[in-house]
Amino acid sequence: MIGFTKAGSQRYRCYVCKYSYTPTKKPQRYSQAIRQKVIQLYIDGAGLRRTARQVGVHHQTVANWAKEQSEQLPEVP
Q1: Full set of structural domains in the chain with CATH
Q2: pLDDT tens across 10-52, in order?
């Protein structure tokens, strides 16, 4: 046992290989529908903070989700 994650899950460490892990994952805090709504608002031109206020999430969460989505787009030659 080495502590807790920011989400509150217990972290463990293997004494042999020093690998740290969380045996059970917590469910995502926000549903996929909320994530899709955030991305759509952002794509439609609402800023990070406006989108965050409308949906009720932190503006950094909007930025993180937008970055995740942009990384999944295909490369343009």
Answers
A1: 1-26 (no CATH), 31-77 (1.10.10)
A2: 889 988 998 988 887 777 788 889 999 999 999 999 999 999 9
| Whether the Cβ atoms of residue 9 and residue 33 lie closer than 8 Å to each other | no
Angle at which helices 48-55 and 32-43 cross, to 10°: 140
Q: Find, among 1, 11, 58, 51, the residue nearest to 30 by Cα.
A: 58
pTM, whole model, 2 decimals? 0.63
Chain center to CA of 61:
7
Contact (Cβ atoms closer than 8 angstroms) between residue 12 and residue 2: yes
Strands (E) located in 1-77: 3-4, 10-13, 20-21
Question: Quick one: which of 35, 27, 31 has its CA closest to 65?
Answer: 35
